Amino acid sequence: MAKDVEVQEQGEYSAKDYQDPPPAPLIDLDELTKWSFYRALIAEFVATLLFLYITILTIIGYSHQTDASAGGTDCDGVGILGIAWAFGGMIFILVYCTAGISGGHINPAVTFGLFVGRKVSLLRAIFYIAAQSAGAICGTGLAKGFQKSYFDRYGGGANFIHDGYNKGTALGAEIIGTFVLVYTVFSATDPKRNARDSHVPVLAPLPIGFAVFMVHLATIPITGTGINPARSFGSAVILNQDKIWDDQWVFWVGPIIGATVAAIYHQYILRGSAIKALGSFRSNA
Predict the structure, then answer these.
(1) 3-state helix, strand, coil in the chain (%, to 5)
(2) pTM of the entire structure?
(3) Cα separation, 227 vs 250, whole angstroms
(4) Which residues, 6+ apart, have CB-to-CB distance to 91 below 8 Å?
(5) Whole-angstrom Cα distance, residue 150 to residue 241?
(6) DSSP codes joined into one string, 99-116
(7) For each successive 10 residues of the chain (285 residues), what is the average pLDDT?
(8) How far apart are CA 255 and CA 141, in angstroms?
């Protein structure tokens, strides 16, 4: 078990059957000269647009099907389980489609967590978050364009703190929910896991999609489940109601804290990056 630390008593590294990528630079201006960078931004924009379009329409459709004034009952529609599947399933599909182009973030919290873990540069993180937010606004706008009356009547699928819960509970739900998601992202894309478990065909988008699904089951009754600031922001911009904006900070602060803690936990505790750096320093000395 002690060999898992990968730093021997003499300060040398044990043999590894995998290769960790080098930490991303803080600011990499060369990225601005590469088409692959802009292609990744387009992929993030389109993926987030599709994500919001499908999920918002699912929420609106369920609200209409269960509306007693429209002849619906609580047993009609896809239910909370179906909404959770819509979010988790779309993340699975979109991460699978875009992972090889942009990394398949589709979420500013995921992007920020990967930045904290030195997986992406600050420049890429800023542009990704802007593209994701713009995609979320456009995706929600499309949903409203196709079903304007239902969108306005049922609150546009926007995130807010539900009755019976306070801001502290909502913030805690967003922090823990985002921690689960970002922790899963780091674990599913860990080169060490991919090498050691190469005999087990694990598709990275699958556990990420399941993480989104499980978190939605737990937190839909509390906040409608944010864990994705772009998703919450897009709905807030298009719906534009005071209550939604009053609660908006919860859906940014919570995911950012959760993503930061998940990145630190995985990179510096489970993977022992701090111990590796110390071992390298002693070896050089």
Answers:
(1) 70, 0, 30
(2) 0.86
(3) 10
(4) 51, 106, 205, 208, 209, 212
(5) 16
(6) TTTT----SHHHHHHHHH
(7) 41 54 81 92 98 96 83 77 96 95 95 94 96 98 94 93 95 97 92 56 84 96 96 96 95 97 92 54 46
(8) 23
